[in-house]
Amino acid sequence: MTPEEALSEILQACKLKLGDLKGALFDAEFALHEEDNNVKAFFRQGQAHMALHDIDAAVESFKNALVLEPNDVSSYDHIRGKIKIV
């Protein structure tokens, strides 16, 4: 992980905590543009979508995270009861 990627992850987490949901979503999408297999960016993107009440987009983000890291309990917990894992 590059220093820029680490900083991006920290910024996403901070923006989520501070309630800057659109900023967190923007940063997650930027991170995914740079590295399309970034599990943390998919997870934080899902969290931002959930907080913005865009459940379908949130589920899609968490599903993408689970495809990359199938044993990630946090992503599964966020979508439990919302989708059927195939």
Describe the structure.
Pfam families: TPR_1. It comes from Arachis duranensis (Wild peanut). Keywords: Isomerase, Repeat, TPR repeat. The chain has a single domain (about 5-80), classed as Alpha Horseshoe (Serine Threonine Protein Phosphatase 5, Tetratricopeptide repeat). The protein is an all-alpha fold and about 90 residues long. The longest helix has 16 residues, at about 5-20. Helix 1 (about 5-20) runs antiparallel to helix 2, helix 1 (about 5-20) runs parallel beside helix 3 (about 40-50) and helix 3 (about 40-50) packs antiparallel against helix 4 (about 55-70). It has helices spanning about 5-20, 20-35, 40-50, 55-70, 75-80. It has 5 helices and no strands. The radius of gyration is 12 Å and the shape is globular. The model has no long low-confidence stretch (mean pLDDT about 85).
Short description:
With 86 residues, the chain is mainly alpha-helical. The protein is built from 5 helices and no strands. The protein has one domain: Tetratricopeptide repeat domain (Serine Threonine Protein Phosphatase 5, Tetratricopeptide repeat, Alpha Horseshoe).
Q: What characteristic shape results from the CA principal axes?
A: globular
**Straight-line distance between termini:** 31 Å
Number of domains: 1
CATH topology name: Serine Threonine Protein Phosphatase 5, Tetratricopeptide repeat
Percent helix, as a range, is: over 70%
Using the coordinates above, name the CATH class. Answer: Mainly Alpha
Main sheet overview:
none
**Annotation field: number of helices:** 5
GO molecular function, one term: isomerase activity
Protein name: Peptidyl-prolyl cis-trans isomerase CYP40
Pfam families: TPR_1
Keywords: Isomerase, Repeat, TPR repeat
